[in-house]
Amino acid sequence: MDKQILVIDDDPEFREFLLDLLLENGFQVLEACDGESACSIFNRHFRKINLVTLDLDMPGISGEQTYYHLKAVNPAIKIIIVSGAPRYQRFNPSGVPRVAKPFKADHLLDCIRGLLP
Asked: How far apart are CA 88 and CA 116, in angstroms?
């Protein structure tokens, strides 16, 4: 599969879980540990990135701020919010699926496959 996903999450163990899951299912993966590095990576590779998984509760640039930056660079980017942070429950951009942590791997994969042609 030639689809590339940017995984943004500050938890290294969870990020590794997502990387392994996505690689095992044929996706190419880039990773970012915070909003600042995510924005930098996205700025350089946005033409090749097909989808982003985005944690909302991160140090520095929040997931919400990161979301708006990604959309400013590429308004058509597909994003899945992957977060269990209760304080961000009101952040629900239209048409953006949310997968609450913890979740079953198949649920996230179904969301991804539903967004990628």
From this structure: 25
Cβ pair 5, 22 in contact under 8 A: yes
| CA angle centred on 85, ends 81 and 87, rounded to 5° | 110
pLDDT, tens digit, 9 for 90 and up, residues 70-112? 999 999 999 999 987 777 678 888 889 999 888 899 999 999 9
Can you tell me whether residue 30 is helix, strand or coil? strand
Beta carbons within 8 Å of 109's beta carbon, 6+ residues apart:
21, 25
Give the whole-angstrom CA distance, residue 14 versus residue 28. Answer: 17
pTM here? 0.93
Closest CA to 74 of 97, 56, 48, 93: 48
